[in-house]
Amino acid sequence: MRKITGALALCLGMLWHMTAAAQAPMNPKVGVQLWSVRDALQADFAGTLAALADMGFDGVEFYGNEYGPYGGKPLALKAYLESIGLVSAGAHVSAAALEPDQLAQTLAFHQQLGSPALVVGMDKRAWNKKGVYELSRLLNAASQGSRDSGIHIGYHNHDKEFRSFKDSTFWDVLAENTLDEVVLQLDVGWANYADVDAVAYVRKYPGRTFSTHYKVHKPLFSLNKRPFVGEGDTDWPALLEANLTEGGTAWLLVEQEAYPDNITSLEAVATSLQGLQALLAAHENTE
């Protein structure tokens, strides 16, 4: 058999990433960003994960270094997730965790945990005229360095990334200066808060929305607008359709940051999950 050279292996790795990103799965999985229930995690890490599994989530997206009693024990955490019917949907990490001196360690942990994507949750360089290019280079280098691991690298927006820059926005500049394999994890709540069309952005960069945060950002609702997925002014059916047909979306992630009427974080997440499940059911009925 002909030996695969380093250059050819690199090309094959890049092709794998691009092909995986461009193909929308028939049935994306439903997960939750654990920041949504951070108070419950602090009180009972294992019990909170079990409660999320019982609700019907397929997986959880971690944040920061919040792994409860499993810090430094990715295989044990993976085993616990599997025992309750969950998997890792990925993690929000700092940009520092993707720097060359930390990338191998970061990837090793998440390979053992089974995380499919590592997403920088926020970095001030993303809305800085010089910093956005520096951040783009970091994401490109980390993505190239992660190809052998099968883990996607990406960035998550807030509202500031949609500020005007270069006749477009910082988000567009970041997108246009990163490789197609770099995930653009769209936070729908923040996009709406910035008064941009989330659906249009999924379509603008096809195949790059490996995961999407389904959220209603809290300043957008009043007494008459509840902060739950499936409600409010967001065109949820159009968003779901764009994710399924153009985004290359493998994970639909509920994120909950508002808990009205003194309900618990777990109760609020359950309400948003029900809204997302109703959207999925309605979409299936139209096919």
What does this protein look like?
- The chain has 287 residues and is α/β, with parallel strands linked by helices.
- Helix content is 44%, strand content 15%.
- The strands form two sheets. It has an eight-stranded parallel barrel, surrounded by five helices.
- Helix 6 (131-145) links the parallel strand 4 and strand 5.
- The longest helix has 22 residues, at 265-286.
- 45% of the residues are buried.
- Residues 1-25 have low confidence and may be disordered.
Distance between the termini: 46 Å
Annotation, overall tally of beta strands: 10
Low-confidence stretches: 1-25
Specify the overall morphology: globular
Helix-strand layout with pairing:
Blueprint lengths: L5 H17 L6 E5 L4 H6 L1 H11 L3 E5 L10 H10 L3 E7 L6 H14 L3 E4 L10 H15 L6 E5 L7 E2 L2 E2 H7 L6 E5 H6 L4 H7 L6 E4 L21 H10 L5 E4 L10 H22 L1
Parallel strand pairs: 1-2, 1-10, 2-3, 3-4, 4-5, 5-8, 8-9, 9-10
Antiparallel strand pairs: 6-7
Helix pairs in contact: 4-5, 6-7, 9-10
